[in-house]
Description:
Elements: H1 5-19, E1 26-32, E2 38-44, E3 47-49, E4 52-58, H2 62-69, E5 72-79, E6 84-94, H3 97-106, H4 109-117, H5 127-140, E7 152-157, E8 161-166, E9 174-181, E10 184-190
Antiparallel strand pairs: 1-2, 1-5, 3-4, 4-7, 5-6, 6-7, 6-8, 8-9, 9-10
Amino acid sequence: MSTDPHTLFDSWMAEAEASEINDPNAMALATADADGRPAVRTVLLKGHDARGFVFYTNRESRKGLELAANPRAMLLFHWKSLRRQVRIEGPVSIIDDAESDTYFATRPRASQLGAWASDQSRPLTARATFELRLAEAEARFDGADVPRPPHWGGYRVTPERIEFWQDRDYRLHERHVFTRDGNAWREGMLFP
Length: 192
């Protein structure tokens, strides 16, 4: 194992990108509301470095509201074909507008328009309502770049703890955990 969890994560992610059929950057995002009620869903990792792990979403969605009330999260990557998983936990911060704008500009136009049309996580009475709103967004931005909606942007999970889990025969798994200690990482092992 590496003494730097970010280097190890980069290595495992590269292997996942080479072997996973769909979305090796898919991760479960667990949040909790102000009362501690948990929720989990799959989102896509859109960047990572020593500062943390980045994803983007509608800030008025359920996850956005939960992160506003309780800015901590856990991420889980599960790469079944590699028989590996990585768990990351820590505080969450909002990405600045410039970084969110830069990423938004790389999204496919249909995804950009969808960010304007969707009231993510809120009730929808009929699919036709969403399709009408999408058509309205298409007309609004016809012939122009689609700007990032003010309610849409990025979040960064700053890891305090990262666990690397490797499946082994007979459920004798290998678990390495890295815990942040100031600016350094402490490494240890956990029983399977």
